[in-house]
Amino acid sequence: MCCTAPMSQRAAKKAKLDKPSKLDPLALKKRLKAPDEILKEVRLLAQELKSQPELSRTLSELGLLESCREVKEKDAHGVLDEIESAIFQVAVTILNGQGFSYSVPSRAKGNQLYVPQLDRIVLKDSASQRPFASTATCRRAVITTRILQLVHELCVKHIHVTKRDLFYTDVKLFEEQNNSDSVLDDVACMLSCTRSSLHVVASEKGVVVGRLTFQEDGDVINCARMGVGGKAIPPNVDKVSNVQSDAMFILLVEKDAAFMRLAEDRFYNHYPCIIITAKGQPDVASRLFLRKLKLELKIPVLALVDADPYGLKILSVYMKGSMNMSYDSTNLTTPDIKWLGVRPSDLERFSIPEQCRLPMTDEDVKTGKKLLEEDFIQANPEWVKELQIMVASRVKAEIQALSSFGFQYLSQVYLPLKLQEGDWV
Amino acid sequence: MCCTAPMSQRAAKKAKLDKPSKLDPLALKKRLKAPDEILKEVRLLAQELKSQPELSRTLSELGLLESCREVKEKDAHGVLDEIESAIFQVAVTILNGQGFSYSVPSRAKGNQLYVPQLDRIVLKDSASQRPFASTATCRRAVITTRILQLVHELCVKHIHVTKRDLFYTDVKLFEEQNNSDSVLDDVACMLSCTRSSLHVVASEKGVVVGRLTFQEDGDVINCARMGVGGKAIPPNVDKVSNVQSDAMFILLVEKDAAFMRLAEDRFYNHYPCIIITAKGQPDVASRLFLRKLKLELKIPVLALVDADPYGLKILSVYMKGSMNMSYDSTNLTTPDIKWLGVRPSDLERFSIPEQCRLPMTDEDVKTGKKLLEEDFIQANPEWVKELQIMVASRVKAEIQALSSFGFQYLSQVYLPLKLQEGDWV
């Protein structure tokens, strides 16, 4: 019984016969230099990043403050102040004889704006009145009051709950979770703060491992000593403080299986990095966590996703946010993520065997073509090129396709070579 | 702006008017004694458990060894030995002129047996030949050989991969992941060892927090210092060693949101326990982890699940395993889990407001009735009673329904009272 090498070599040779390939995937290991040499390109990227002037331009710098609205992360005291002043405002209006009414910013698509200079979606300034003394808005005004009250309680008690918990606090009033959820987003916009500032959190599903220590609710967490399972990313990023790291980059991994491979091989000990996965579509907690790391550590983020439209969709959620949370996009997004792999051009370059490539469905191709029109893709010609290869070849591949060259090909050859060659776009 | 109390009190009073309720949910807090007093019942349960003779009866003690088959957890060396002897066996058969053939135990439903003395499903002794020199089985014989070879490689290298990785190692041969997956289960039965012994693991999704320390791949993990996010349960339980704890019980939680509440409130500091959730349907890693804790620590496991058929289904997976992994049931199951809550009888007892109770669908009722016939329910008259209440009332409720009495009602009143009264079945 022997290891896979002979089998895979055969597969690789076969692939070579099938079509002209640029590299012999199994000979690539010989090209690898010493770890310190391998990291040269990453070091340059990191220096470049650190020497960049702060790019976080604000709406006021762009002269958009009047016509646009952005929310900010606020601490419990900040939120309490906002709630109290909102209620005070209502009281004043009542005393003026104008009745009990909230002014609620519109979150409709027509009120959303993509700002290229920010590379983010923001809300325009349209808002609507929500008077209590109107049959059309009475119930919603009451729900708004109740949500404001509940958020006030959360901030006073310094506790976090889920949207589901919030709903169950007053099912008689809310009736459907949709009602409490959507008013919660309204309230975030009204108070100009992020939804997570309201102490209402999403359930977490992300995991982190690698060269990172931080404090979480007072506990010191060392992510380099978290075995192979890693540390669960906390649902409430405001409990994370004192972030420290000697990592040179953050490796953002789409899939659980790749994360496990890298964690078990302790990839971060060979190439100092922080490895994060949200196991597919990123949840809010993982996005907030990534953003926090990027902001505090100022190191590059390299992404390892499947070579399919879904992999790019995931990158787009990290980079520019999702539509229904657009009011919160500043605080959720990490622009400037480098696409390390698996890129459509890698399939040829690494001679991924024919049988490990999957045909794209019509739906896939449609999604791919739609992505080609999106601003965040068009902003980067290299991404356009890759996506064009994908759509033209109608072929996709998963990260795991690399397993065809051996289980540890990903951690021992593919990724080190990518780093060594600075092969990201 | 005030806290929820007045609102909830009103709701509670309303519920009281609606129907005769036994307890005023908000007055219950006054009944609570000091933490040490509260834990008296749990202490008795733990003592009872520890004084029980080892109940893990074996097939041979039951005289079933000849007619039944169970698999065991084996370390890498054990698996390598088994593979080598399986291949040796094949070589002998070839030399004897009987040709290249594997003897593969049947995993079909007809070959499964529920053993009440073990409270587990085991495999009966039916097996089939898988000769290479037959058009019907040739491909499957080749796949079996390839899987044996790959597992051999994993055990030699001491690395773990997912089923998906395994599939991608030789897509040309396997064609569909079904093929490599099902042969992997065959191989586990052939070698009489668990699937996780083969170093093929499922992706983890469980989280743990509380009074527990263990070593994971050499790293010391202290689950009492894991912030509010907790520690991700490792995909490979064989890397977990040196389990230590001063916890008095394990609290098994169905839902993420309840886990978060208990973690943030540091419930385990008030009532020494280990809190585990698999976020819904338990994955293999979480089941293995729970079983390991129970075996090593010999402390009671108390379950907090939704009061619906799905909550019981989840308990059944923990306690007696799922059908398609029945050959592995011994090593995956934790019998003797106590059902703490939320039980159908709690809905009346704690006066859960009418609007927080959900009507059961016809599908729910069907599932409930089917569960009533299952052995693991019938073995416990109290469970039967609870399930009968659920089916008769056609009403279900989620753990979060307790939020209607305040966000921290779960951690500050409901659970302490349950513990104090020894209210589990």
Describe the structure.
The structure is a homodimer of 425-residue chains. In chain A, helix 5 crosses helix 8 and helix 12 (309-320) runs parallel beside helix 15. The first copy, chain A, is of the alpha/beta class. In chain A, a hairpin with a 4-residue loop joins strand 3 (112-115) and strand 4. Helices cover 43% and strands 16% of the residues of chain A. In chain A, the strands form six sheets. A six-stranded mixed β-sheet of chain A has the order 11-8-14-13-15-16. A three-stranded antiparallel β-sheet of chain A has the order 1-4-3, with no helix packed on it. The two termini of chain A are 41 Å apart. The first copy, chain A, has 18 helices and 18 strands. The first copy, chain A, folds into two domains: 5-55 and 204-420, Dna Topoisomerase Vi A Subunit, Chain: A, domain 2 (3-Layer(aba) Sandwich), CATH 3.40.1360; 68-201, Arc Repressor Mutant, subunit A. The interface between A and B is large, with 75 and 74 residues. Chains A, B: It catalyses: ATP-dependent breakage, passage and rejoining of double-stranded DNA. Chains A, B: One of its GO terms (biological process) is DNA topological change.
What proportion of the residues of chain A is helical, as a percent range? 40-55%
Structural class of chain A: alpha/beta
Which CATH class of the largest domain in chain A applies here? Alpha Beta
- Would you identify the regions of chain A where 5 or more consecutive residues have pLDDT less than 50? 1-20
Kindly provide the radius of gyration of chain A, computed on alpha-carbon positions and rounded to a whole number of angstroms.
Answer: 24 Å
Distance between the termini of chain A: 41 Å
On the 0 to 100 scale, the average pLDDT of chain A is 87
Put simply, the count of helices of chain A is 18
Strand order of the biggest β-sheet of chain A: 11-8-14-13-15-16
**How many independent structural domains of chain A?**
2
Task: Report the major sheet of chain A.
Answer: 6 strands, mixed
Count of distinct strands of chain A: 18
